[in-house]
Structures are given as C-alpha cells and as structure tokens.
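Example with several molecule types.
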Amino acid sequence: MTKPFRVPAGDDQSFGRRIDRTTDIQFSFDGKRLTGHPGDTLASALMANGIRVVGRSFKYHRPRGILGLGAEEPNALVTLGRGPIMEPNVRATQCELFDGLEARSQNRWPSLNYDIGGINNIMSRFIPAGFYYKTFKGPGRSGWMLYEDFIRRSAGLGPATREPDPDRYEQFNITCDVLVIGGGVAGIAAATTASAGGARVIVADENPWFGGLADSMSGTIDDRSQTDWIAEQIARLAHNENVHLLPRTTVTGHYDHNYILMLERVADHDPDLLEAGAPRHRLWRVRAKEIILASGAIERPLTFADNDRPGIMLASAIRANLERYGVTPGERGVLFANNDDAYQTAFKLLDAGVELERIIDVRPDPRGYQVDMAKASSISLTFGSGIHEVITKNRGQQITGVKVGALHMADSSGEELLPCDFVAMSGGWNPALHLYSHVGGKPDFDDARQIFVPGKEQAHLRVIGAADGTFDLAEILSTASEAGEQAAYKATGKTQIAFEKQQPAVISHYEEDWEPVWFVPGAKEKSRGGKHFIDFQNDVVAAGLELAVREGYRSVEHVKRYTTLGMATDQGKTSNINALGILSNALGKPIPEIGTTTFRPPYTPISFGAIAGLEAKELFQAVRQSPVSPWHDANGADYEPVGLWRRPYCFPQNDEDRHAAVNREILAVRHKAGIIDLSTLGKIEVQGPDAGKFLDLIYSNIISTLKSEKCRYGLTMDDQGYLIDDGVVVRLDDDRYLVHTTSGNADYMAGWLELWLQTEWTDLKVYVTPVSEQWAQFAVAGPQARNILKKLRGNIKWDAENFPPLTTQTGRLLGQQVRIYRISYSGELSFEIATPADHGLALWSAILEAGKDFGIEPYGTEALHVLRAEKGFIAIGDETDGTVTPPDLGLSWAVSKKKSDYIGKRSLQRSFMADHSHRKQLVGVLTNDPATVLLDGTQIINSAEIQPPPPAIGHISSSYWSPTLERSIALALVVNGNARLGDTVYFPVGDNVEPGTIVEPVFYDKEGAKQNV
Amino acid sequence: MSDVSEIGPLSDRKNIAGRYNSALAIEAVTNRGMIDLRLDPDNFDARGKAESVLGFVLPTTPRTSNRSRHRAALWWSPDQWIITCSRSQSANLVKKLSEALEGHHAMATDVSDARAIIKASGPSTRTTIMKGSSADLFLPDVEVGHVRRTQIAETAVALHVTSLKPETVEIYVFRSYADYIWQWLSVAARKGAEVKLFYRQEPPLV
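Resulting structure tokens for the full complex:
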C-alpha cells in the first residue's frame, strides 16, 4: 500500500530529506495499524499510506483530505490519544509522528467512509448561509427545540476529554532585546545581524526545525541551496550565547507593549520526554524590546467547483511533502495555478517520477523563468483556462479526472477531460499578517499585486520577508539584514559593529507575474452541487457569501458572523482573501473599501493546560497556613474558605454534624471557655512622631487620646463615608500603635495606610509596618478564661484590677514574648493573646492543655459569628456591603464630632447622609416561629401579600440559630429601622411569607456584665 | 510545664537535594532572624547610627544588598531594608538599633517569624524561578547580592541571589504562603523540566 505514494529518495537524496527510511514506526488511524518513518508528520505518513480522506467537513460532512502544509490546514484535524490524554482538533500537518501514535478522524459517524451526516451534503440546499440565525430567530421560536439534537450531532469538531489531564504544563517569563518570529531565510538573516553586537535575541519557529519554506524554493545564496545557507547560519547562531533558538514554538499572540505569548510544544512529539518529567507544553511570556516578524506567507487556494475534494492540495504543500517526506498525494496530477512560483511543484513532481498530466494556468500568456522552463520541458500546458469540474468516484472520495475549459466561460463547449487522481492548486501567496494585526496593525491592500501587506509601521515591530510581501530572495536578504541591525540598535543603543556587511551572491527566479482569480466558474449551476469552497473548515461556499450580500449584508464583519466565514479554529488562514474577492464582486466595490476582518490571538489554538501553567492540580491556588494549621489538620477541623485561608468552621467530634458542633462550641464559650485561632487577623504597626495624628485622620473616632497600653475599637471609612473596616487599635508606646484589621482586609488596609501617607499626607512622619504574619493570635473566651490562663507560667497579671477591659499587657508566657489584649468579640470575659508565630502552635497546645479541667474547647468561625451576633456586634462584609455608614449601624458613638478632619467626615455631613431617616439601619429581627432560621440576604417586606411584589424595605444581614437563646436570631438592615422597633414585618421564603418582629440588635447580655469581670 | 518550642512554617519539610527527582537542592533556612528597618536614607545621622550598629553600609541602590559575615541588609524599598542576622540575635539587634536611633524618625521591627526562607540551588535555579516570576534573572544587573521583590505564582516573594556559581537564590516568602511556594518549587524544579537559556546550543535541525 505504501508504494507508490512514497517516492524513491533519488540519487542525491532529494526526496524525503526529513525521514529516516531505514526505520519503521507504527501508528494507527481510526484503529487501522499503519507504518511511517521517523521524521514524518502525521499528514505525510497518512499520504504515504494512500489515505486520502482524513475527516468530514463541519457542516456538510463532505469527505476531506489534507489541503495544506502547516498551520493553515483547515481539513486534516484529528483527535490524538484517548482517555485522559485525548486531544481533539490537532492539525495532522503539524503533528510529528511517533511510535504508538493513535489518531482518529473527527466529525463522522459511524465511520469516515460511510458517514450518515453526509446527508447534510445532499440536503445542503436547506442549510444555507445564516442557517443558524434563520433557524433560531424564525417564527415560533421553536427552532432550537426542533433542531438541537440534529445540530449537536452533526456540527462540531472533535470532543474534548472529560478526564483530568495527567500531564504537566508550565509557563516561562523572559525579556529580550529582539524577538525574531519565524526561522526562514528572512528571520535567520535578521537574527544574524541583530545578534552580531551582543543583543539578546530569541528566534522562535513553529516547526521542529528551522528554515521555513526555504527547502521548497529554487533560488540560491552564494551558490548554495537556501537550506544549506540556513544550516550554516543556524550553526553559528546556536553557538552564540546571546541567541536562544526555539524550535516547536508558535508565537500565538502579540499584545500591547510587545508582550508576546508563544507556545513551545516540548513533548507532544515524544512521550518519553513526558515520562522523564518534561511539561507537555511551555507557554513563553516574552517581553521583547523589538520584534521582527518573519512569519512568511500562506498559499491561496483557487475557488473552483468542488475544490475541496480529497486529493486537491496547495501546490506548495505537495512540493514540500515530496522534498521533506518523499510522499506524493497520487500517481497522476494536474497543476492549476495563476503564478510562476507554483511551477516549481510541477518540476518537483517530474523529478520524483510522478506523472503530471497538465499545467493549467489561468494566465492567457504567462512569461517568465519558470514558464520558459516548463515550455522547454515535456510538460503539457494549457493557458487561460480553469478547472470546470472535478470528477470523482466513491461518493466524492476519489478523484478520477478534471474537466478543463476556458476560464471565463461557464459552458461545457470546448471542455477537455484530463485523467488524474490529484490536483495541485495555487492562487499565489498571502503574507501571514496575523501577528502584525493583533495590536491593531491595519493591513494595506496592494492593488497591483492583489495582496494585503503591512500598513503603517508599528512601534517596535518590523515585518520582513514574505510576510511583508517581499518575495524576491535578494531583496528579502537585504531588507531582513537591515531590519535585524536596526532592531538591535534600537533595543540596545549599540551599533552592531561585529557584523561584517556582506552582500551574498543571490540567484532568485522570482517573477512578479500573477493574475489574481477569485472565482473559476463551474459547469454546474452554483446552487445545484458544484460547491466552490472558500472557508474549508467552516464549510462556507462562494454562493453562501453571495446569498449574504443578497440578503442585505454589506460589512465584511457582518458577513463574517452571518456565514461564520473565517471563524473556525484556522481563523480563515486560507479563506480570508478569497472571500474578500468574492464579496468585492458581489458588492461591486474594490477590496480596500470592503476592508479585512480583524485577526485576534491565538494564531493557532493553544492548550488550556498551557494557559493554566503550573498552577493546576495541587498548585491551583495557594492555601494560606496559620501557625496553628498543623493542629487544625490533626484535630479534624471542618474548614471554610476565607480569602486564601482555610479557617476552621468548627471542630466536629465523633459523629457530630456541623450544626451540633457549632452549638456545642458556642455553649462552651458561654458557660466554660473556648479558644479560637485569630492569627489571620491583620496587624499593622504604626510608628512615628505623627502616628497619632495620622490615625486620627484614618479612623472615624479619636485615637491619639488613647493612653499607652490601652485599646480602642475603631472604624475606618472610605472617602464616601462608607465603612470599609473595623478593628481594635492598641497604643503600644508613646509613638507606636498596633492596629488590627479584619482578616480579609489585612493586605488592603496596609495598602490603604500607605496610599494616604504616600499621596496625601506626605508631610507626616509615620512608618507603617505590616506584621500580620509575625504574630500568632488567639482569643481565649468564656467565664473560665482567666482561671485557665493563670495556670500558665509567666509575668502577666490576669486579675480584673490589673487587667481591666480594653487594656493590654506585654510580657512572657512559658518563656516566650506575648502581647495580650483584653478585648471581647463574644461578649464573654476574653483575652486575645499574640505571640511570635513560631511559638504559636506550642502556646495554643499549652492553653488547651491548661484548660482541659475547665472544659475548654476550640471553636471555629461559625461559633465566632453566632457569638458576636448574639451580642449585636457587626461583621464587616455581613452588615456592610460598601454602602453602609457607621451611623447606619448605630455606631455614631465612634464617629468623632470634635476632630477637625478624617476620611469620610465630610461625606457624612452631606444633607442626604445627615438626614438618617430614609436610610437602612441596623436592627434585630426575631421570627415569630423561633425555629425558623432565615437565609442571609432574605428580603424584608411590609406586607404578608407577595403578589403583586411589594417593595423590599431591607434585608437580613446575619442570621443564625442561637443555642444560647434556643431560638433563631437575625441582624437586618431596615429603612428607618430604629423608629420601627416592635413592628411586624414579613420575609418571603419560597412561596410562603414568614412574619417576624423588629427588635433591638442586641440579644444577649445587653449590659455587658459578662465581659466586664 | 516545659518552655514553648519553635515551629517554623517549613519545620516539617525534608530538604530536597537530588531527591524527589528534583533538579535543584531546595531547603528551608530556619536559623535566620529578620528585622524590618525603616529610615530616611537622606537622614545621614540616622543612617550612620544604624550602620555603626550593623557594621556595614546600608545599600541605597535599588535591588542590591550588603553584608558582613553574620548579617546582611537587603534593599527593600527607598526607605526600607530587611536586616538579617542569626535568629537568636534578632531581639537584641532590634533593641540596639532602636536605642541608636532614639530621637530619629525611624522604625525597627522584629519580623523574624513573618517570613520563611527557602534556599534553592543548582544549575537551573534562575530558570526554575522564571517559570513563575516575571523577574528576568538573566539581566546584567543580576549579580551576587541582587535582591528582587516580585511574585512567584501570584504570591509575593523576595529573591536574594547569594551565588551565581553555583546558582543559589534565597526566596523570602510570607509564612502563610511558604507551604505553597515550597510545593510549587518542588514541581517546577523536577528533573526533565529544566530550562536552559542563552547557552551554546546544539544547532537545531534545519
């Protein structure tokens, strides 16, 4: 089967340069075991095995074969591997063959050769352009319901795996002076001059080797083939320690300020590398001072009837496949072209011993080097003609011939039938401008040559070579060398003196003689078979574009969305320009007036694994560890996420559920003692001669009057007067304060203090040092707290007289430094103990040990919240939402009337803030049914009727079961709530309405007797 | 009851040196004290007093450090340094600095427990870090002593390049994130995933 599609190497080994014919490797396609050689691509190996049909098309399920050579391939998309490492939509043309490779075709059922969806092709008249829009916007709005099953089955590409990806991916950050994108002749010439003076140069190429299309081009440099010349340059560049060469690396996106993303396929080609620890892909994040874009050009297909039949390939792809892998798509071909360059394919086929039936050139009278060569050879030539019809057998899977006739005559008179089994087509070359366009580069249309070329020069980006529309070898070399030199000079400020300017002797046979042809009329009526494909991947045909125009679409952006032109994963690499040509005819406007669509990253799709990088699986996100975390882990903590922390929600014992554990912990604190890990609290030390003045500006209440070793609860507002944080401020010393913030705002508040110091009050002599992580901190709370702590060896005076509420003591416990604050968030007798973090775990354990006889229990965040809610203490984030002021929460006592200024003061004085009656105010709420615990966020209404929906007058901000009171309790924000104590209000719960009463927001120990002991 | 023992954030970690298939030696540095020192570098009097306590000059060039045998000063921000010393000396050194700076607007705070230090060494140390940090450790200003405050995997860290031959970088990370960064490094530094950069490459295929 392999022969005759694998041609002999030839005397000078000119066919199959990249493969090792002496070694066979096994792979499978749709379960069929096949053989290839090391160096093959999956595409070349399939061709060598005579496999023509490699997939079914997206919409019409037409059989499709390989069209292109690399990134532009729209048809040969396969699924690789299976199970967790299954990867869909891999371009066979860029997939390196390895032993054991397993590939499957896509979008076919039950099999590639007998695809039932092919009915779509027969039914294609009923799947016109805009089918989806018409279906779903149609009358009755039932389109989706009617068609969903059909559409889901028949449209689409390969399915993604549902299993976790076992491989690793990673990213890499780097800066460089010059990034060269593309390692063909232009890129390598530029890299050579750019690196000559020591600039740091990175050269990335998507292929596993360097050279681009040099191996398919006939010109020579200094009497050597272009490939030999590149090999020499590459050897030199590789040895330069200021140059980094990256094969298998696709530049996928160009972003602002020359930020580049490029995907290195580290191990796709070799499972052994994965086994040895390599990541599958590495996403390079490059910040390049200068970029040289040498991305080359992509060959343009010709638009003739049934131009998508398997066996019709781009001429350059056929040429390169012969050269590199020694494979031919068939035994007898025709070349259909509009330019000189494509003739090289004809010569290559002849050299390889493949029969060439005819060269069909659309040009009536072509002249030039290649044409003269062809004329002088035995090749049969037909000028001014086009392919009218492709004759096939096996339901379109096998070409048997083409009908050729006059280009501009659509009748069948004078048609000639040429037997052949493959067609090489070439409509000329389109510069690959995708990366030029990512950051807003607008291509210009070159009318003379009918191609898009880079327009206005982009800052720090130079386009060279074929990407710049430069096809002449000598010109490529001279402009590329100059671009490299300039880029390096701009990046480094240094002239690249080390480079000896040399003008290599170049022989280039490039002829700028081509005739654009947008449409080759077929023998059949367009709408009745004979489809002229424009976008192969999304099955957009010329007739579809014309239909869109007839239906009133004018802008290319609209046509694109309506027909899905260019919206497949190949982003229209082969379809873009042809589509514009068709639209230009249909609209009667020149191409520049139609405009081109916008190219967006990525150039080719990249894996989600690479986007996630290393931060997947166990590294998905940092989980912050408290100094006591090992104890929590070992003692069955049931965690809840709090920012990046996992804080113990409760500590269930035995078979307890969460609810039971929380109730037990609360009662322990109320009746005995509890201990909670508060190490996550924000702690910031503020020092300097102006520290008091500074804190007076930050807090709503006065801080500077605080005496040393005293504590005060403080509120911080933003400049709108809304509460952003609260916490206890401690005066450690004359000019040194410690401020506590909530756990979630620890970093934010440190930044907040620095922001005001650095931007507004630069005259204040204050230093701010965050010490959150330095200190472990626990609250020991409950009637037995003092008795327990007294047992610990140390110099702290625990008795009420020496350690009254809102004071602090520093000293030593168990030989270690401690700071102890007499503050209570539970309403019980409470001490918060801070110790340097490394001692935290031991001190925690020692307190639990000392408290054993007193019934101490560790408690979690839920008990903390119920305890504070029972006391009516607010929690930032529950009672506040960024629109709540201190007076709203009944905290006017902590808003100074004396201080001349502080953040938020003026805002609270605005008339609509000062008149408080229309604002939501903090109240307590008791449901009439004590067993009902409302959900946080439940709306509050005035009426028992919910139809029609009455306006909400407030919402529940905290709601809990209180084991202390043996009923539900809730805090709420209610409009003018303070004036409504005793009123009955209602809570919609599902379809029902629960009644309840507004009460004062303190449910337990209103006098504070329990904490002041 | 016995005295409280010290448990650092990475005290349960086995040092990784050629084990766990790691291309780098990774270890926790646990015996180092750290002091956050703030003062105005243009206040020569105050700076001089601090320097005489430390025994060397405070670096004022961004991203640099200075050191004596047992102590080092890492430039942290224009008026901030992290002073490192032996762990047992930190409290005493804070006291000495505070006394020497009495009357000046300056601040010395013992932050020995706030951060963990992870020392990574081996030929691909810099490139391993660059998998997670946008700091380019191959730029010319990255010399021995280089200090860089940056992020690894979105986590704030400071890097202190203590040697280039062999490559050794000390990573300062807040203690609550130490476990994460340790794990991250262990995965990033595994054998087979090394990145070599700007070296004499074998010419790739053409």
